[in-house]
Structures
1.
Amino acid sequence: MDPETWQIISLTLGVAVLSTVLILPLGVALAWLLARPGWRGKSLVETLVALPLVMPPVATGLILLRLLGRRGPLGYWLEEKMGIEIVFTWRAVVIALAVMSFPLLVRTARVAFQEVNPRLEQIARTLGAGELRVFFTVSLPLAGRGIVAGTLLAFARALGEFGATIMVAGNIPGRTSTIALSIYENVLLGHDSAAFRLLAVSVAMAFAAVWASEFLMRRRAAAP
Amino acid sequence: MKLALKRIQLPLGRWALEMDVELEGQVIAIFGPSGAGKTSTLDLIAGLRKPRTAHIALDGTVLEDTSHGRRLAPQERGIGYVPQDGALFPHLSVMGNLNYGSRRTNGSSLFSTEHVAEVLEITHLLSDGIGSLSGGEKQRVALARALLSQPRLLLLDEPLASLDEKLKSRGLDLLRRIHGEFAIPMLYVSHSREEIAAICDQVICLAEGRVTQRGAPEILA
Amino acid sequence: MSMKTNLFRMVFACICTSSFACPAARAVDVYVSAAASLGDALKEIGAAYEKTSGDHLVLNFAASSVLARQIEEGAPADLIFSADEAKLDDLEKNGLLAPGTRKSLLSNQLVVIVPADSTLGIASAKDLTYPAVKRIAMGEPSSVPAGIYGRTYLEKLGLWQAIQPKVIPEENVRAALAAVESGDVEAGIVYKTDELIAKGVKLAVEVPLKDGPDISYPVAILKESKQPDAAKKLEDYLESPAAKTVFQKYGFIVKD
C-alpha cells in the first residue's frame, strides 16, 4: 500500500478515535439521564439527539457550516478572537463525525442503562451511596457492555461518515480527505481500483467494529 | 422504636395506600395478602417512593413531611432494606457487596465484617461471586450487607419466603439472634402467621391498601 | 584585515541578503476549491507549481454546488475553479468574487456514449429519439452542469421534448457513466473527459464544438482571500503553457 493510502487510513482512524473519545462523557451522561423516567423536556432532548440520525447528512453539514464558518456565530468567535480555524481543517472533520455518531452512542447506552435493575440502584442509596457514587459504582458497571457496544457503533459510523464531513471540512487531500471522501473523489475521477482498495479497507474496519458491537450486545442479554 | 406513618396517601395500581398509624415495638410485622401494599409501605419508609401526602417519623426524626415540603433522601435515612430477592450487586463479589455500605467501625467490633459474617454464617462465602449462591445464602448476604451499614431500622420483605421448612426455622433463629446481637429494630413483612408469631411483638394488617387490624401477634390467630 | 573578519563579513552579508529575500519567498498556503472532475489535472499542475513558486496548494475537491455553498458560508478559499458558471454567477451577485479576476479557462465536449456491446447504431443526437432507446442517463438536467449543458443542446435541436421522458437523472456524471457501463440504460450523455476514462462504453456521437453548448470551467479569486497576490500568481500559472499541456492531457479543451 502506498504512503498516500496509508495517510488516508491513518487520518480516518485518528479523527474517528478522537471524535468517539470526545462524545463519550456527554453521551454516557445524557444516556443515563434519558434512561430515567419522566423529567421535563425529556422528549425534546430525545428528539434533538435523534436528529442527525434521521436528517440527510448534507443538511446536518450545512447547519454545521453555518455555525462554524467564518461568519457563523461560533466560527467568527473562534477564528477572530482565538485564532482557531475550524472549517476546512481536521477539527471540522472531528466535529462532523462527533455530531453524526452521537445519536448512536446515546441510544445504545440509554438502552443499557434502562436495563439496569432499578432496585439495585435503590438499594445502593439505602446503603448510603450518593447519586454520583450510585452512578459510578452500580449503574455504569452494569450498563458497561451496552455502553461499549454503543461506542463501537458510534466509531463505525464515524469511520464511514461522508455527507456532513464534505460540507463542513471539504475534501482536502492530506488534511481532511478521509476514506469515505477519497472513495468519492476516486469514483468521480474514474480511479476504480483505488476506490475499491479503499472500499475494501472501509468495509473491513466497519465490519470489525459492528461485529464486536453485536457480540457485546448479545453477551449483555445473557448476563444477569 | 417509634414509627409514625401519618396521613399516608400513595396511589397504587388498583387502590391507594392509606395509613394513619403510630407504631411502637422492636420487631413489628406487616401482614397481608400479596398486592395489599406491604412492599410499597417499606419503599415509602426507605424513601424509595414518593407519596402524594405523608408524615413519616422514626423515633422523633422526621423522614418525610409533604405538608412542609421536607424530605430526607434515602441516603440519609439510615434505614437498611433487605428486599424480597435480595438485590445483590451482580458485578461485585460477596465481599464487595458486604463492604458497599459498611461504615468504618470506630473501635466497635460489633459491626465488623468478620463478626457480622460470622453471625450470619456466611464467612465461608466471602470470596465467592454471587452467581453461585443459593437463595438462602443470597438472603443472608443481603441481610449482612444491610446490617453493615449500621442502620437505625431494618426493613425485611418476606426474608424467609423462598426457604423450605427446615431452613425457615433456622432462618427464624438467625433473625432472633441478629435482633439480640445488634439490637436493631425491624419491620418485617410476611404473609405467614407462624413466622410473625415466632419473632414479632406487634403486627399491623394491610388489605387493599388500608390497615384493618393492629396489635399483638395473637390477633392473627 | 584578518581572514576571520573577512569570513565574518561574508557570512553577515549572506544572512542580510537572504533575509531580504526571505519575505518574498515565504511559502504561503493557497486554498483552491475545485470541481472534483479537475482533480487529476490540478494535482499534477499543483505539484509542478509548488516546486516553482514555493507556495503550498491546499486543494479542496467537491461538487461545484458544494464549493459554492462553502464559500457563501465563509469557508476560507483563495481561488475557485468551478465546473458551473451559474454557481459563479451567484457568488458574483453576492459580491464574493474579487472583481476582474473571473476567467473562463477550460471547456469540454459533449458526447453520447452507449454500452460497449450496444448494437443500436446511434450516430447522431436525433437517433436518441428511436423507440429502441428507452433510457438515457445524464446528469440531473436542472442542477448538474453536464446535465444542464446536455439539455441546452437538445433544446437547441428541438429534441428535448421527445427525449426528456427517457432521461434517468443522475447526481453526477460518473453515476451516468456507471449506468451506461452496466448496460442499465441504452445511452448516456457525458463529457469527453469522462468518456476517456470509462471502460465498457463506446463513443456514439461527438458533438462538434461549434454546434454544442458553450461549456465553461470558470476560475476566479475570492474577494475575502487572505493571499490575493499568491492567488493571482496561481491563476496566471493556470493559463501557462505548462498547465495547458496537462489539462489537454486529461481531455479538457483549453480556451484561448
2.
Amino acid sequence: MIKTVKKLNIDGAFSNSYLLTLSNGKTLYVPKAEDNTDYQNILAWVAEGNTIAEAD
Amino acid sequence: MALSKIDVANMVTGATPVANGGTGQTTFAAAGLAKRPNAKPIIINGDMAVAQRATSVTSHNAVSYTTVDRFKTVCETGTYTVIQESLTSGAAYLAGFKNALRLDTTTAEATAGSAGEQTTIEQRIEGFNLQAFKKGTSSAEKYTLAFWVKASKTGSNLQVNLRDVDNTRQIGGTYSISSADTWEHKVINFAADTTGAFDDNNANSLTIEWFLDGGGNYSGGAVPTAWEASSNADRNVTNFDLAGNTANDWAITGVQLEVGEFSSTTIPPFQFEDFGDNLARCQRYYFRNNAVDNIPFAAGVCNGTTNARTVLYYPQTMRAAPSLDKSGAGHFKVQIGGSVHDTTNTAFYYPNNDQALLYVDVSSGLTDGKGCLVIDDGGGSRYLEGSAEL
C-alpha cells in the first residue's frame, strides 16, 4: 500500500526517479519507467486521486 | 563412404549418435527437443536453487517474492513460513533436486477472511520468452507443465492455471496428492490457443498459478479445460484449503514448461542449468548485493567535501529499470585515499536497465574531484538490491 511518493531532483533537475514510501514504512527508489511494476503502481495510485509531492 | 544422414537429436542430448533409420533411432521428438532445440528452460529457477532474498521468511501474509527467485508467494489466506527447503531424501531428491519451495501454515484461517483472498504460487513469464507457443495463430502449440509436489495431506483436483495476461484468457489443469508427505511427479497438458497472441515484449504475458487456497470469488465454476475468457470462479474450483490447519504444508520443485504435448514417459528430462547461468537469469529480475568487511559497492568521484557521486553497475542487464533499495543510510562509508568517512545519507538517481547513480553524503572530509569508493561499514546484513520483477 503506497503512503507517499516524492520526486527526486539532482542539481535542480528531475532525476527520473521517485522516493516511494509504503504504509509499512519501507522506502524504494522507483524509476520513471513504464515497464517497472512499482512505477505502474504509482500511476494507478495517482489515477485514484493521489498526488506526487514535488522534490525538496 | 559418405554420410547420408546425421542423427542431430543425439548430438543435442549428448547420446551416442546412431544411424538414422537404424535400430535405436532417436528423433528430436523423442528427445523432447523438437520445438526448442538447445534452448534454455522457459521456467527460470525451476529447481529452486537460487534464493537471493532469503532462505526462510516467517509470518508471511502478503503478495511478494520471499525466498526462491522468480516464484511469487501470493499469501492472503492464513500466515506461512516460506522456505527454500533442502532435500535429502525422497523421489524428487533422487531425481536430482536438492531444493524445493515450501509453504508451512503457521496461522490457520479455516475460512478465507474475504471472498477475494487467495494463496497461490506464481511464476510470471515475459512475452519475449513465450513466442515458441505461437499463441493466437493457426499454428498454436500445446503446453505441458511438469513438476514435483509434496503436501502434508492428500487431495484431488488441485488446480494449476495458465493465465494469459495479454488477452485476459485462462486454462486450467488438475492434479492429485495421492500420498501425504511423499514427492510425486505431475505432468499436465494444456490445449493450444489459436486466439490472442502473446505480446512480444518484456511485460508479463503468462502467469502460471498453483492455487492452494482461496475465498468464494475463486470457486463456483468449472475447471477450464479449454482456453476461455478469464473467470475468477473457474480458478480454484476445489479448494485444497492450505490455510485450514497449522499442520498443513505444500512444497514444489522441478518445474518445467514445455512446448508441445508430453506424457509422464515422454516428458523431456529436466534441464538442470549451471548454477551461474541460473543465477544470471534470475538477476534479470532481481539482484541483491550483500557485503561485509568493507567490500566496494560502487566507484565514483567526490563532489565537494560532503558528497560523492558514484556508479552502481547491476550484475545483469535487467528486464526494466529496477526499483532500488538499501540497508540503512549509515551502513556505508566513502573511501578516499587511505581515509574512510561515514555516510549520513545514500540515494539512487537516474536508474536504467544497466546502472544507477548512487549518491552518498558524509559530514565532512572529502576532496572535490578525487576518486572514491563506496564500501560497506563492516557490519552485518549490509546490502543494495534492485527489483525489476513482474
